[in-house]
Design goal:
Chain lengths: 81, 167
Amino acid sequence: MSETPVKVVVDLSKPKGQRESIIELTQAEIDEREVMATEAEAQRLVDEQAKADAEATRQSGLDKLIALGLTEAEALALVGA
Amino acid sequence: MTMTLVEQITVGSGGAASIEFTGIPQDGKDLKILVSARSETNSGDIMAYLNGDKTSGDFSRVLLKGNGGSVFSQDSSGANYLLINNGATESGDTANTFSSLEIYIPNYAGSQNKSISVNNVGENNATSSDISIYAAIWADTSAVTSFEIELNDDFAEHTTASLYIIS
């Protein structure tokens, strides 16, 4: 197993059987990959927060409907299970 | 309509940071990429690129996702890649399972901005497992000549990627 990350490059302009190359990443590519990974992680955290916010809003609405006198089943039927 | 498998590759032992198809023939109408992926770590987010563009901020997307317990939607723009959350099954998920990911790019050889649709299903025999759809665009009029997917970490051995041309 190589210590340096590799990429699989498939050149479709070549004949079958000669297309696939396994190439070690250059240091620049490794650095770029780390930057992209940081960006992706930041985006993932934004996604997770938005998801948590949406769930909190949903639960808040559900609680208010139940406080108005609806059963949980009725409230869930309105907002979706 | 004819769908032609141009190439399928399988990641070998040791894994791979990325998988890239280059020299995509320009004689088709639409492009379809099917990926069955697993990450070597607990990070399964896939970044997809077209024509090696990693800096333009030309990717935008709208996503709808459910995970068995809740649903979630989001839109974002100005990204340097198309981020496909949990596009690969993660190492903590059920052993020896792989995601099912489909990426479709109509009119890939044309001179309009490129729309991209994505369907993704994670694989995990547990309470929570993601299913998601994306509508995305790459705001670039160039014909698509290369396609790359990348993980924060490595694609595990036996991950496969197949490229089809629809004509």
